[in-house]
User: What shape does this take?
Amino acid sequence: MKTPISCEVARILLPFIYLFGFYVMIYGHISPGGGFAGGSILAAGLILQHTLFKGEPQSLSPAPGTLGRLIGGALILYGLLKALHFFNPPHSGFHIPVGVAGTLFSGGTLMPLNILIGITVGATFFFIAILFEEGRLPL
Amino acid sequence: MKTLLTLLITTSLAVLLLLGLTELPPFGHADNPAHNAVMTRYLEEAAEETGAANVVTAMILDYRGFDTFFESIVIATSLLAVIPLFIREDSSDENTHQL
Assistant: This one.
């Protein structure tokens, strides 16, 4: 698996994978994509980096509890953001400005929600990949 | 005996579900219950009401936000369910039990 060719290709490719993942997540309310797709792309990059650079300075080794806290924190924030809408229905007068459709900062809470879902999905997939490969919880 | 019981339960369940399938409206028919005011409302008003140019995102994150919330919770729960399946016994040090 680990050859000089794959390492060099990954070194060149990884920034673009991360950039594309964040692009798909952040522009989810304008172009096709969204939290689930962006999170999967991000997780693909993380898994590639983790498997190729094991034991090297570039290797990813999340500290104990990081991934679990990321997943839980993103889910809690999502719930709080949705509760904002739940307790303030449209007829109550409370209104988050939605902006002009098609511009980056539009859609009210859609962009943060997409990013939170992306964090949840990416961290979960990365967690499962480490678990599957090494048979231990990611430390 | 147990196998017979399992077979009986699964067959009756399958028959029940297939009976329900015969009652479904025909595919693509114009009078189907799915073709109601909701569809046109979403397609015509989504950009104005939610500010999202992508109608799919407007639907899954705004109109159906709670559905997506529990989908992400299902993903996190599936992770918890997968942990005991894949964890190996020999890798137990003091940090192993921290997520």
